[in-house]
Amino acid sequence: MTAPIITVKGLVKKYDDFTAVDNISFEVLNGEIFGLLGPNGAGKTTTLEIMETLRDKTSGSVTIHGLDLDKDPGAIKHIIGVQLQAAGYYPNLNLSELIELFSGLYGVDIKPLDLLEKVALTDKAKAKYKDLSGGQKQRFSIATTLINQPRIIFLDEPTTGLDPQARRNLWDLILGIRAAGTTIVLTTHYMDEAEVLCDRVAFIDAGRVIGIDTPDQFIDNLVASGFERKKQVKQANLEDVFINLTGKEWRES
Ligand SMILES: Nc1ncnc2c1ncn2[C@@H]1O[C@H](COP(=O)(O)OP(=O)(O)OP(=O)(O)O)[C@@H](O)[C@H]1O
To answer: Which of 54, 110, 135, 230 is close enough to 252 for a disulfide, judged by CB 3.0 to 4.6 Å?
Structure first.
């Protein structure tokens, strides 16, 4: 888990006069879950979409699994998994049919039910995307990233808007995908999520990387600098109460 699978160097993205990504550099190591964290508008999605070949960069270089984004975007597309926009989910097709369609577009042969099983959606194989709950939609969206059996997947705020159970179940799903050998780059606004999921995180602010490390090291450094929480931390929080009262199983009918 030590070799870089993604190398971003001096990445810049300008929208007219506005610099959204301002000379960002980082590496993502093979097999890790790497988090891009930072305030709204910091440039996380822009950075993610450039790596996904979905957005042009202004300057800098991106190398993914030895492939240069400028020279081999087509080859990069084959080895990465991206979340498709919901608009691409043809409304008349059910989940099984959508996976068949997408796998045809990728030129791969996969069994829809096998993929749906990975995200606990086999019982929804005949359902339409619009009829899924929020958590089920997110799980289906993650399933679509796996269609081409990619080495790396990119997830933009995968648990935003989900209830605590759905969120924790999605964490298990993401950890399972990593355990199967896939490198994951994700963005999130939930620091508890980053702490549970990410091997390393990069904090981005106003288009610049302001720190890259493991969550534990960031926390240790902060404590070592003399930081103390103002209030005594309770032994449990309201989310623990929620999970304790309502259980952990998939509950999204
Ligand atoms: N197509 C565009 N044209 C002009 N400006 C854009 C465009 N897309 C993004 N921006 C601007 O670039 C900046 C970075 O946006 P980006 O979506 O990358 O931020 P983010 O870190 O993902 O934010 P959030 O956490 O709110 O999703 C923002 O100021 C945004 O308004």
So the answer is: 135
